[in-house]
Amino acid sequence: MERAPSCRAANDYLLRCRWGSSADVGFAAIVEKKCEASFLTRFPADATARYKQERTLCGAYINSESGTLDFSEAAVCAAGVAVDFATNPNSATRRPLRASFDCARAQSPIELSTCTNQALGDADIAMERAYRAAVKSVKLESRPLFVQQQKLWQTSVVAECKIQQVPAPSAAVSCAVASYTKRAIDLKE
């Protein structure tokens, strides 16, 4: 991978040869280093922040109970983010994400809290991405029930974490972040 002629070629090699184990973490780091060399030092601060956010979101569901496959997926995702930023100039100009939804339309206390708290916003984005991936794997006839379960879960977070005001108390935000993270993990299983 280190000898690959380009960032994309190094990533192609990673994708062809990955093992689905923690060994992929080291290989993915080589891809990231190769890709970052082409853009990271010339990026303005906001583009660097956007890049770091996307990389962080790749591993948002990893915890102490995660297996090596999870670490592999997160590392391969982060390498893919590096490739995207190295090869797609528009990636650097996108605004940082605040939530998985349009914050201009946020109305409820949970939505407003998600849009104003970076940790909660990132947890929301990671959970939504896990949810979208999970929906694709659910049989078509089971999707309405799956979608309904997700809506019930979202309602339960508001009640369980007592998010009824803006700004939400820090304990409520911490509760919601933990709930979103757990949901992302559950959806990936």
Features:
189 residues; mainly alpha; 9 helices
Textual characterization of the structure:
There is one protein chain. The model has no long low-confidence stretch (mean pLDDT 89). The radius of gyration is 18 Å and the shape is globular. It is mostly helical and 189 residues long. It has helices at 7-17, 23-36, 45-58, 68-87, 89-93, 109-116, 118-137, 143-161, 170-188. Helix 8 packs antiparallel against helix 9 (170-188).
Q: What does the main sheet amount to?
A: none
User: How does the helix and strand content classify structurally?
Assistant: mainly alpha
Straight-line distance between termini: 30 Å
How would you spell out the order of helices and strands? HHHHHHHHH
Which percent range fits the helix content? 55-70%
Task: Please provide the count of β strands.
Answer: 0
Count of helical regions: 9
Task: Based on Cα principal axes, name the global outline.
Answer: globular
Radius of gyration: 18 Å
Describe this structure in a few short sentences.
With 189 residues, this protein is an all-alpha fold. Helices cover 69% and strands 0% of the residues.
